[in-house]
UniProtKB/TrEMBL annotation:
CDD domains attached to this UniProt entry: vWFA
Transmembrane segments: 6-27, 39-58, 296-320
InterPro entries, A to Z: VWF_A, vWFA_dom_sf
Record-linked PANTHER family: BLL2462 PROTEIN
Domain VWFA, chain residue ranges per copy: 71-259
Keyword Glycoprotein among record annotations: no
Superkingdom, taxonomy of origin: Bacteria
Originating organism: Pseudoclavibacter chungangensis
The entry's keywords: Membrane, Transmembrane, Transmembrane helix
Protein name per UniProt: VWA domain-containing protein
Length: 330
C-alpha cells in the first residue's frame, strides 16, 4: 500500500478531526434517531474524504532507477486548439497524454514536472519522482474552458519555465535538465511570441513535439463542470462553419531552435523519441523497485458522491416538509 497525499498529512488530519468532531457533537445532541443517523453518515463522509486526500494506492513494478539522473520538464499546450480532432480522429491532447507517459517511462528514475499553458501558465506538478502523481495530472488534463478563452500565445509558459529551471538548477546543479514542449504552434494572441532562448543555457537536452496536421481538424468546445448541455464544435464567426485548427510547424521549429533542441512532428503511427542525455550525468542502477501505484482514491470519491446524493435527498425532503408545514399553518 502506498500513500501520496494531495495535502500535507498534518493538514488532512486537522481538517478531518475538526469536521469529524463537529459531526460527533451534533450527533450526540440530535433529538431523534433519524437525525443521529444523518450525522453518523456525515461523519463517515468526512472519514472517506480524509482517506481520499491521502491518495492510497497499491502495486509496484521493477524498473531501472537512477541515483544521479535527470529532471524532466513537460510544457503542455492546453489551449482550445489542442482539442482539434486530427490525431487519427481523436483530440490532439490524447496524443500528448500518451507521449508524456511514454517519455516518463523512457526516463525511468528521473524527477518529473508538469507545466501547462493556455491564457496563462501553471505549474501543475512540481518536481517529483512519483510517476503516479504525474499520470494523475496528465490523465485529467483538459483544454481551457472555451468561454474563458481570449487568445493565447505559444510562449505563454516562457517565464514560468525559466523560473522553474533556475530553481531546479540552484537546488541540484549536478542534475541534467530536459524539457519537452508539446503543442501545435498555433498563435492566437495579437502580439508576437517571446523567445525561449533564455532557458536554453539551463538545459542539457529535450525536444519540441508538434501535434496536428496541415489539413487540421474541428474543435469541440470545453464546458465548465456545471454545464448542463453537451459540447458542440467551435464555430468560425467569419464563415459560420466549424472552425479548423492547423499545426504551425515553422513556429514550433523556431521554439526548438531557441531552446537548442530537436523537433519531432508527432503522429499516432510513430513512437515518440526520448532526448539523448549526456551519459556522464547518469548513474543508473537496474532492478530496483520504482513505485508505480494504482490509485484507489477514486473508490472513496465515488462513495462520497453517492452519500452526498443521499444528503441532497435528505435536505430536499426536509425543505418540502417545511414548506408543507408552513402551508398548513397558513
Amino acid at each position: 500500500m502506498t500513500w501520496n497525499p494531495i495535502l500535507p498529512v498534518w493538514a488532512v488530519v486537522i481538517i478531518v478531526l475538526a469536521l469529524g468532531a463537529l459531526c460527533v457533537v451534533t450527533l450526540v445532541r440530535a433529538p431523534d434517531r433519524a437525525r443521529r443517523r444523518d450525522w453518523a453518515v456525515r461523519a463517515f463522509v468526512v472519514l472517506l474524504l480524509g482517506i481520499a486526500c491521502l491518495r492510497p494506492g497499491i502495486g509496484t513494478s521493477s524498473a531501472a532507477t537512477a541515483t544521479n539522473d535527470v529532471d524532466v520538464f513537460f510544457v503542455v499546450d492546453t489551449t482550445a486548439s489542442m482539442n482539434a480532432e486530427d490525431w487519427d480522429g481523436a483530440p490532439r491532447l490524447d496524443g500528448v497524454r500518451g507521449d508524456v507517459m511514454a517519455l516518463a517511462e523512457a526516463h525511468a528514475g528521473a524527477r518529473f514536472s508538469l507545466l501547462t499553458f493556455d491564457s496563462e501558465a501553471q505549474l501543475r506538478v512540481p518536481l517529483t519522482t512519483d510517476v503516479s502523481a504525474l499520470q494523475s495530472a496528465v490523465t485529467t488534463l483538459r483544454p481551457e474552458i472555451t468561454g474563458y478563452s481570449s487568445g493565447s500565445s505559444i510562449s505563454a509558459a516562457n517565464e514560468l519555465l525559466e523560473e522553474t529551471l533556475e530553481r531546479a538548477a540552484d537546488a541540484k546543479p549536478e542534475r541534467a535538465r530536459v524539457v519537452y514542449y508539446l503543442g501545435d504552434g498555433e498563435q492566437t494572441a495579437r502580439e508576437d511570441p517571446e523567445s525561449f532562448a533564455s532557458s536554453a543555457e539551463l538545459l542539457q537536452g529535450g525536444a519540441v513535439l508538434g501535434y496536428g496536421t496541415d489539413q487540421g481538424g474541428p474543435m469541440r468546445e470545453t464546458l465548465s463542470g456545471f454545464a448542463t448541455t453537451e459540447p458542440t464544435y467551435i464555430v468560425d464567426r467569419s464563415t459560420g462553419s466549424d472552425a479548423i485548427s492547423r499545426i504551425d510547424e515553422p513556429a514550433l521549429e523556431t521554439i526548438a531552435s531557441q531552446l537548442g533542441v530537436g523537433y519531432q512532428h508527432r503522429t499516432p503511427a510513430t513512437a515518440v523519441q526520448a532526448a539523448a542525455v549526456d551519459p556522464t550525468v547518469l548513474e543508473t542502477e537496474t532492478g530496483n523497485d520504482v513505485e508505480r501505484a494504482f490509485d484507489l482514491y477514486w473508490i472513496f470519491v465515488i462513495l462520497i458522491f453517492l452519500l452526498l446524493l443521499r444528503e441532497v435527498w435528505v435536505l430536499t425532503r426536509a425543505i418540502i416538509e417545511l414548506s408543507e408545514s408552513r402551508g398548513a399553518r397558513a
